[in-house]
Amino acid sequence: MGVCSDVCRVVELLDRLQRSGELPPPKLQALQRVLQSKFCAAIREVYEQLYDTLDIAGGPEVRAQAVAKATVAAFAASEGHAHPRVVELPKTDEGLGFNIMGGKEQNSPIYISRVIPGGVADRQGGLKRGDQLLSVNGVVRRSQGKRKPQVNW
């Protein structure tokens, strides 16, 4: 996988664009700084680590999309609570108001990929994108990660 080489190539192309004068230099310089930042390098490293370790069925595009989502979830999980907690959501006809990703099919923990605006989870406020599910109604799920809610309904 060549994410590092891809980023280097983009920086080279931005430099070439800057010299050509086709685009405003301040915007190109800002983009170059972002791509060369420690934060971007950290994201790339997490992405590459996940790409190498997650067992995801499907072609390269499916794998890249799943790894990108897992990378976002990993960074979202690193912000906020690091302790397991119980989040109780009332079961309603409208559902619980969140989407998940991961699980046995992707050989990864189960994470909250989206909290639906206005849904039960959003109104209750206890779940956040990137949270990992440890158990649902007392059934233990695979455990990894930092933000670890338990969901009961």
From TrEMBL:
Signal peptide: none annotated. The lineage of its organism: Eukaryota, Metazoa, Chordata, Craniata, Vertebrata. One of its GO terms (cellular component) is plasma membrane. Transmembrane segments: none annotated. Residues 1-58 form the L27 domain. Keywords: Cell junction, Cell membrane, Exocytosis, Membrane, Protein transport, Transport. This is Lin-7 homolog B (C. elegans). Pfam families: L27, PDZ. Residues 86-138 form the PDZ domain. InterPro entries: L27_C, L27_dom, L27_dom_sf, LIN7, MAM_complex_regulator, PDZ, PDZ_sf. Coiled coil: none annotated. It comes from the Eukaryota. Its main location: other. It is a peripheral membrane protein. The keyword Cell membrane applies. It is found in: Cell junction; Cell membrane. Belongs to the lin-7 family. GO terms for biological process: exocytosis; protein transport.
